[in-house]
Description:
Elements: H1 2-12, H2 15-27, H3 34-47, H4 66-76, H5 81-106, H6 111-123, H7 140-156, H8 160-173, H9 175-191, H10 196-222, E1 227-228, E2 231-232, H11 233-241, H12 243-246, E3 249-250, E4 253-254, H13 258-277, H14 282-307, H15 321-340, H16 342-345, H17 348-378, H18 382-398, E5 404-407, H19 413-423, E6 426-427, H20 441-449, H21 455-465, E7 469-472, E8 481-485, E9 490-493
Parallel strand pairs: 5-6, 5-7
Antiparallel strand pairs: 1-2, 3-4, 7-9, 8-9
Amino acid sequence: MAINSIIKFINNANSTLILLLLICLFHLNFEVTGNEENYLAWAKAYYDPNWMPGSFVFEHWVGHKYPFELFFGFLLSYLNFETVAFIGRLLAFFLLALGLSRFFKALNFTNLESLVVLVLFLFAGQSFFGREWIFASVEPKVFAYGFLFFALADIVNRNLKKSTLFIIAATYLHVLVAAWFFIYLFATLVWGKTPFRELAKVSGLYIIGTLPLALYLIPNVLGGPSEINGVHLNWIYVYFRLTHHLAPFVDGKLNWEPGGILASLFFFISALIIHFKIKPQGPLKIFNDFNVTIPSFLFAFIIVGYFDRSGDILKYYPFRGAAFFLWFVIVEVVLLTKQYLPDFSQSKRVSRSTLGVLVVFILFGFSENLKHHYIGYYFLNEMENQQWNEAVSFIKKNTNPRSVFFLDEEVDERRFNSFSRKADRDIFVVRKFIPVDKSKWYEWYQRLQIKIDSDSEMVELKKRYGLDYYLTTKPGDRVGKVVFENSAYLISKFPD
């Protein structure tokens, strides 16, 4: 049958290319996401200090992002943000596909089974809760995840030394993603009754390998005041900016959807039952152990989150593991099916049905990418784009390159985030771009509270911050000297 031939072709194809193609169908496009606007702008400012000299928003401490910012800053000196985002995603997705291919080969998964795992993970939202993700845009953590999949392949092959080296490499790309993974691995090895000598070797290797980075980061991360003018700086980070990632509770009330938490609790209990009743061995045991240890941390930190009202603990992203937990649950389910239902998993009829379902899911994912990030990005809202482009064109032609703009909070977030790289002008503050430097969090928080309602306020802000222009979507708010106006935007000059 033709379908059987297609399945045979898929399973015989290069697994890296098959996985890369799937990821690209879902997430490869030229539209720059909010995270990419942030990370790529910082990379450009780091590589080219003359781009936004003295900028509150763009001058920053590079931290562990040095490799990312050096490489992408170099690309941005020749290419625009859209092209660099596209190239960056392609490189990140290729690294992920290489790691995934190695991981699935270690598990003896066919390409069809590998696609099932990846598609289920993508459609399940990539995380149980906390909105962590692995496959989407380009930023430092995505490259770290690529190395972690290489590490996972070596964990399956019981080569812990080699896997630790990959985790060390990932740590230099993104500290929290890789450090949390190592903590989960260590706990899993303890849970699996790994000999003490082996534990000591693995942990010693990781500590020695990451010590230079730790010595560089710790003084900057732990130094400085904990609060300014009675405002706790970690509260700003956790409860003002990143509640969707870090705060399961806000003011004692559940902040996240309960469905993901309940689902993760179900799979945690299931993993415990499997552990004690089935007593799995081999790769199944590895992922069953992960599915016991990772949610143990997650639920412990959910409880901590109820009491940590200042964000002192939550700021360290303790829920990143919810993504790998979802991934490991899917992998464990497939392994259980292959081991305990071999006739079902190897049935040609099941394979044909699986292929049919996969095609539907993949076509849906690709159509969503096409609809929102190609057709929607380039062709829809043409009039709105025209009005914005008129305003940006005026700014580039008629304002000093060193001008600083205050954008009204009503400006669309996508335009707000992309303003500086499109207009080539500095911006007063961006909510999306919380500073890397903890010492700037309070100032960033204060700037976001500022509203402009009168000429007298503009005079005061001009004196205090050296602002030059005010851009708003409310043409009725005619403060300052109006220098540009169309049906959607108004630009006025701050009075001297």
